[in-house]
Amino acid sequence: MFGISQDFKRIRVSLVSMKSVFVAGSRRKSYRKINDLVQLLNDSGISATTAGKSEDVCNDTKESEQNSLLNAFRKIDESDVCYVFSTDGYIGRTVSVEIAYAHAKEKELISSEKLGIISTSVPISKVMNSEELIKYCSSSE
Q1: Residue 36 and residue 46: Cα distance in Å, rounded?
Q2: Considering the domain boundaries, does residue 86 fall inside one?
Q3: Which of 19, 55, 99, 115: disulfide with 119, CB 3.0–4.6 Å?
Q4: Alpha-carbon distance 96 to 118, whole Å?
Q5: Is residue 122 part of a domain?
């Protein structure tokens, strides 16, 4: 009985120390890649989420974009890390707002690559690919 209890405690500590991730990125440019990354993180045992669906992004309304952003804020609040998925340094206006919100909430900001000139003042702490992110979020640092 004692061994089972100790194993349970070790598993519980491991799960508690794992970082959760909000993946921010351009829905218009990288929706499938972002969803694949979120799935990969979740399959690796890391709680990961994104702002939501990308159904018919070409027909987004002001109201749908605002709702998506408010949803993103809620999910950022629930996450430890904001991972910025960028393609060729591009992040877009909405992702910039998500980054600013995550920074204001003192979330760790990590990017998939160095961000473009417009985004040079973004306080990114690390640049990591998906494999490095999984290892980082799985560690108890």
Answers
A1: 14
A2: yes
A3: 115
A4: 10
A5: yes
